[in-house]
Amino acid sequence: MAAVQRLFGLEARGELTSGHVRLVAQALGKPERTVWRWLAAARAEGRLDRMPAGRFTVTAEVRQLLALWGGNASRVHAELVERARKDPGRPEVPSLATLHRAIRRDLTAGERAGLRQGEKARRAHDVFAKRPPTHRNVVWESDHKRVPVQVDVEGELVCPWVTWFIDCATKVIVGVAVTPHAPSRDAVLAALRSAIDRRAPYGPAGGLPAAIRVDRGKEFLCRTVTGAMGAFAVAVIDLPAYTPHLKGTVEALNDSVEEMHFVLLPRYTHRPKLTGGRPADPDAPALTFASFVSGLLDWVQWWNNEHRPDALGGRTPLQAWAADPTPWPMCRPSSSPVSPSRTTGGSAPSPLTASAGTAGTTSLVTGYRKNAPGEVPQCQSRGQGVGRLDRVGRRSRRSGFPAWNETCTEQAPGPSRGCRPYFPPVLLRWQDA
């Protein structure tokens, strides 16, 4: 206690008077005799604080028994009683109520949950600090989200996947791609293309971030994606495993889209089930893939233009983006035989892969057909398989993806290479203005 320490110091220097004791007693609301007794205990025992009350605490033995019995305090108490019966020299066993109080006092809520249900339950009680506020395009976060909704893709029920990029400062979704299968680098490139391009229909939010945080997904860390971002001097930050809290913005977006949109759709797989695990609507008609993509893009448009997150102070993400004075990198697409109007405008969404920007009005496919030498590559309404590219000339080394910054109209050096592979229109070439 600070008051006793002060009085003890005065007494050691020979300056203590009864007035000092009386002043401390009045300030603490204690009798003077109590303060003199505290001083006597400090002189005799060297103790400046009150004597700790004798109470039962959780020991290492109790912790081990709690882990053994899955957090069951009753079984732990029975085990302690049995051990005390076999060994009379052991300390007295507390009552069950005392053991319960000690467990609640000495163990955190996360520790108690972890003893009962495991590490995942313990992590649910972890508390994390927020990152300091930044400006737009300082860092983006990206992730894949498996949609818990069965949709109809050419007569087969599948659960699509969503790949998107979100700006951490303004919460605006800058790019999104949808695939009817587990995503690969084609979905990442499609979402990146819609995120980088600020022209209609993708803008106005987007551009080039300083860094992108991802969660060790091989689709984000492949040479195709890291090479494309490296050409723009954009760092791809590979976060440690099992640390979703380090990219909390996109994880919160994954939770929000399920709670605000997916839960309302037919054939939502996380809907509460009837007795025996039977779904409540087993015969509900499934949405077509094109209808699902259209509804999701409408929700993205609502999120950017109408939703008002608490962190933005009553503004929508696009309003926060527009109000941020931070300049965005001045980039423009270079001349390319792949025309944006031919690859994105005037055609219906493909049943294979679709990507769109913040406007939420255009879809882009990633299936391609084989082109004759010198022919401008065009998208097919029904591709030959997402992630596979048929073309004249050699194939790239990784999954048939073309080399960066190459087109089919340019001739490669050397007599035997023939036509150089073109870069697909999911990500146009860019250069500084």
Structure description:
This is Integrase catalytic domain-containing protein. Residues 315-418 are annotated as: Disordered. This protein has helices spanning 2-12, 18-28, 32-45, 60-68, 73-86, 96-106, 109-117, 119-123, 185-196, 218-221, 223-231, 248-260, 289-305, 317-323, 340-344, and strands at residues 140-146, 151-153, 156-158, 161-167, 173-179, 211-214, 235-238, 287-288, 331-333, 354-356, 430-432. The longest helix is centred in the last third of the chain and has 17 residues, at 289-305. Strand 4 (161-167) and strand 5 (173-179) form a beta hairpin. By secondary structure, the protein is of the alpha/beta class. The radius of gyration is 33 Å and the shape is extended. The chain contains 15 helices and eleven strands.
The biggest beta sheet reads: 6 strands, mixed
- Estimate percent helicity: 25-40%
Widest β-sheet, arrangement of strands: 7-6-1-4-5-10
Low-confidence stretches: 330-433
Distance between the termini: 68 Å
Q: Strands, helices and their partners?
A:
Blueprint (H helix, E strand, L loop, with lengths): L1 H11 L5 H11 L3 H14 L14 H9 L4 H14 L9 H11 L2 H9 L1 H5 L16 E7 L4 E3 L2 E3 L2 E7 L5 E7 L5 H12 L14 E4 L3 H4 L1 H9 L3 E4 L9 H13 L26 E2 H17 L11 H7 L7 E3 L6 H5 L9 E3 L73 E3 L1
Parallel strand pairs: 1-6, 2-8, 6-7
Antiparallel strand pairs: 1-4, 2-3, 4-5, 5-10, 9-11
Protein name: Integrase catalytic domain-containing protein
InterPro entries: Integrase_cat-core, RNaseH-like_sf, RNaseH_sf
Organism: Streptomyces sanglieri
